[in-house]
Amino acid sequence: MPELRLVYFKMRALAEAAQLVLAATDTPYTYEMAWDYFGEPWPEAKPKVPFRQLPMLVVDGDTKIAQSGAVVRYLAELTGLLPGSSKQRAEVDAIFEASQEWFNPLNPTVNFAVGDDFAAKREAQLPGLHLRLGDFERLLGQHGGPFFFGDQPYYCDFGVFHHVDLAHFFDASLLNDYPRLQTFMSAVRGVTGVQAYLDRRPELIGVGSKPQLVIDGRPEPTGVMKA
Questions:
Q1: Is 3.40.720.10 the CATH classification of the domain at 4-80+196-221?
Q2: Residue 147 phi/psi, 5° resolution?
Q3: Where are the alpha helices (DSSP H) in 4-67?
Q4: Which residues contact 54 (CB under 8 A, 6 or more apart)?
Q5: Domain 86-190 bears CATH identifier 3.40.109.10
Q6: Where exactly does CATH 1.20.1050.10 map onto the chain?
Q7: pLDDT digits (tens, 9 = 90+) for 39-68
């Protein structure tokens, strides 16, 4: 297994699906804040990074994989979370990409928006979220569940899990009308290694008022800077 270093920021966003894949397959890795990995503030390091954005996966110290989707697909192949046929791989990828479409504005809103801005963005996003939840609910019924392709989770399941989990900060009762998605979320939590990861990851608190991650017992503002 190669040495894996996942470089990102203080936020619960584009590195989550990758970490869920790693947790579900018991794959060793280190998570490093951008300023620790680069040894300088993010604005100074940014021009040196492919496409000037993170997350980035560093493999064996030299290969740098940028773009969150590319990172997750590489990890899925490395850890065996890809189906065997090219046709089903495309179907898996379609579901993953459908979940990624939620990234903006869901992730920035949950991690950074406050006050009236948060409330307005939440209300604007909820109708679209429910449309996509309806799509996922229907698709979960095609292969008998509990995952999108039956009893075997693939990387798409972890992409959907992250975004649905994050959307609960908008509405704790979000899944009341989606029984298959409720079962799906429980099934993902039940994958060996996933619940342990969820329990140990930094807690996201103060959403909508003062977003912070509790890191080593200390609340720290979400963001791309060390302090």
A1: no
A2: -95, 180
A3: 16-24, 34-38, 42-45
A4: 7, 8, 9, 14, 15, 34, 66
A5: no
A6: 86-190
A7: 999 999 999 999 999 999 999 999 999 999
